[in-house]
Amino acid sequence: MAGIIAIYIYGRENSRLFHAVNPEELGNVCDIEMFVFCSLDIVDEKVVKSNEMYLGQLFTDQRYKSFGFVTNTGVKIVLVVDFLNSTLKDQDVRSIFKRFHVFYCKTISNPFYTIGSPLHSRWLDDGCKEIFAKSE
Amino acid sequence: MSKNAKQNLADSKKMSAELFCLTYGSLVTELLRDYEDPKEVTMQLDKMGFNMGTRLADDFLAKNSNVPRCTDCRQIAEVLCKNAIPCYLGTTANSSNWVGGDREFTIVIENNPLNELVQVPPNLLAAGLSYSQVIAGAIRGALEAVHFKVYATAMENGANTEIRIRFDSVLKDNLPAGEDD
Asked: What is the pLDDT of residue B2?
């Protein structure tokens, strides 16, 4: 797995719950966020037609491409990948989403977490470290 | 543990660890909201544990008839680690860190089911909240029911929970347990 740029988690009303950007790409956070906002619009379009949680590729420009995942409770996960990346297969993206869905569930099961506030947990942090480490 | 007791354990109704963890978590957060002082919450958890412990002591001795009579702290620790904690928490524990002529020791509970999904915020920890104090309280209560007076405190250490137990005295009189809290 290479070239994973960032992962974002949004709530039902598009409030941002979690974000993590690959440390190498910290200089381009503005561009990446703009790109993610564009992708979120496409999530809304695709979610009506889709019959599973994984939405596939959402959007692409000259630098990035994004993949989407919407849980049944309306939580959106957007994964941003380098445009030139061709090693990341559909199956890998699915497994990343599935893992982060589990991390999300674990995090909100923490009794000290209030629903709707930003997510902080060691599971998400470790998961991010892992996918960004693999992308080096 | 005898074969019979093992069978009893397997037959007894199981509860989902997640449900248990969430129930206990919401109990603690509700207490925090009511008392507003983490130290007070720790005390309340200890008291709840104590009351559970005084009841569990008899239950435990009834289920595990082969538990020997304990004469020193090492035996107490062994029964707690080998019999009591696996029986009620379904996880393993070890005793270590003996100081003060075997009067003080630590029980390390691995993968404590109470805080499987829990991350206690550091500010609450600093303010004196001890999340798993109910276990420490239960141990204190159970030992008091069999006439050992101990002090117990719980500390989180990563995925493990450490229960520090200090032996105080053997209660000579036959006061019924639970009358002096």
From this structure: 46
